[in-house]
Amino acid sequence: MKVVFNSEHYAVVSYVAQHGYELVEKDSGRMLFIQGARADHFHAAMRQVVTEQQGDSDEIDAFLADYCEGTTQPISFH
Fold first, then answer.
1. DSSP 3-state helix, strand, coil percentages of the chain (rounded to 5)?
2. Collapsed DSSP state (helix, strand, coil) of residue 35
3. Is 44 helix (H, G, I), strand (E, B) or coil?
4. For residues 23 and 67, is the Cβ–Cβ distance under 8 A?
5. How many angstroms separate the CA atoms of 61 and 11, rounded?
6. pLDDT digits (tens, 9 = 90+) for 11-48
7. pTM of this structure
8. Residue 11 to residue 8: CA distance in whole angstroms
């Protein structure tokens, strides 16, 4: 597990062994876990945003907001 992005509003954690990413919306307490081809697509899109925006946190947050729109689920503790 490795935190690859962390801002006031979002966190992105990489799970190399599972070939996946966990995207956490901190404000709403919701998350999304993606694996496989979808994780590959996310990685490429995230890399493009970081490169084009030169690591601007607000632009990355906006990308994550769009990416997570309607797909996140509440975080629950067991």
1. 40, 30, 30
2. strand
3. helix
4. yes
5. 9
6. 999 999 999 999 999 988 889 999 999 999 999 999 99
7. 0.84
8. 8
